[in-house]
Amino acid sequence: IVGGTVSTVESHPWIAAIFWRSKSKQNVFRCGGSLISACWVITAAHCFPEGSQTRHQRLSVTLGKNALNESDSTVEQTFRVEQIFIHEQFNHSEQNYNNDIALLKLKAMYGKCAEETNSVKTVCLPPPLKSLPPGTTCEIAGYGKEKFGLWYNSQFLRKAQVNLLADDVCRQKDYYGEMVNNNMFCAARPDWSQDACEGDSGGPLVCEVDNTLFLFGIVSWGDGCAKENKPGVYTRVTNYNKWIEEKTSLPTITTG
Ligand code: 4AZ
């Protein structure tokens, strides 16, 4: 997050930190995500490059995390991943990350996945096709970089506020032109001072409707961070209610 402030996980209790275990057994932070039900985290498809690295055995998800490089076992809940669903129409070779959405099924421990606490809660999905007017202020959160090009992520969870941009504005030539399609929307600070950045990918953009926060966007891409005329681009979650329902209601394959 560029230009934001340190936040506490209690104010974004659905945030998930997704780690990948490297060959040297180190847990490397990969992406953000959002807890949408006890056993399901929604994130971005581009967090999982093609090939062997995408093996779910290498992934873990931590909920309730304030500091990226320290663990607090009194509030954190860590899970292995049982299954990954990457959107069937996501294409790694395309530049614009169309259908940048994925679901991770957490592996239950003693028959349970996430347990609700002050630091761990689910976020609501908005109703299908619900759209909010341009200018609506929404909130993003993540452990990503505080400046584009830095080599390290933020040590603490950070948040920022961004406004939804009209689609025709974001599709102007000096913005992103044809790169932005209807499965995406743009959001930015009017003075370009706050934005998502590398490492925030997969994480939440939430907007309040009738006193309830809903997950409207998933951090997806952008040209740099907090750059003039280059807003953050988010996966339009309201286009995927059916896909999410389909995947999360699928029976689990068990072996042994
Ligand atoms: C990234 O590389 C990334 N400013 C995520 C979000 C944005 C830019 C880059 C938006 O993961």
Automatic annotation (TrEMBL):
Keywords: Disulfide bond, EGF-like domain, Hydrolase, Kringle, Protease, Secreted, Serine protease, Signal. One of its GO terms (biological process) is plasminogen activation. It catalyses: Preferential cleavage: Arg-|-Xaa, Lys-|-Xaa. It is found in: Secreted, Extracellular space. One of its GO terms (molecular function) is serine-type endopeptidase activity. It comes from Poecilia formosa (Amazon molly). Its main location: secreted. The lineage of its organism: Eukaryota, Metazoa, Chordata, Craniata, Vertebrata. It is an enzyme of class 3 (hydrolase). The chain holds residues 212 to 467 of 473 of the full protein. Its EC number is 3.4.21.4. This is trypsin. One of its GO terms (cellular component) is extracellular space.
